[in-house]
Amino acid sequence: MLRQCSIIFICLAIAELIVHVTHIHFPSSLLGMLILTFSLKTGLVKLEWVKGISDFLLSHLGLFFVPPGVALMLYLGIIQAQLIPIVAATLISTLLVLTATGWTYQLIRKIL
Fold this sequence. Notes:
Largest sheet: none
Main location: membrane
Number of strands: 0
Transmembrane segments: 7-24, 56-78, 84-105
Order of helices and strands: HHHHHH
Keywords: Cell membrane, Membrane, Transmembrane, Transmembrane helix
Organism: Oxalobacter aliiformigenes
Low-confidence stretches: none
Protein name: CidA/LrgA family protein
């Protein structure tokens, strides 16, 4: 389990270093996942080396959402006061993303 955690943390550390050195505005956690994915695809890291910790983290994924959910309760008054704009922004942005995704898919299908 220690080796599995180490591999994931090494990918994150490399990503942190890249972000720090290059000063790019990109989440290091996402870059770390991309590095891990690249390492798995190229065979630098074997799936068996990280499968155990990955399964453990995925099975407990719901626990990672509890603290943000509790933190939302602190701002319940603000959320209630701004409920209509929040819902409207969520619906409009969802529709825009779905439309843009559909148009992009259709364009790529025509090109290919």
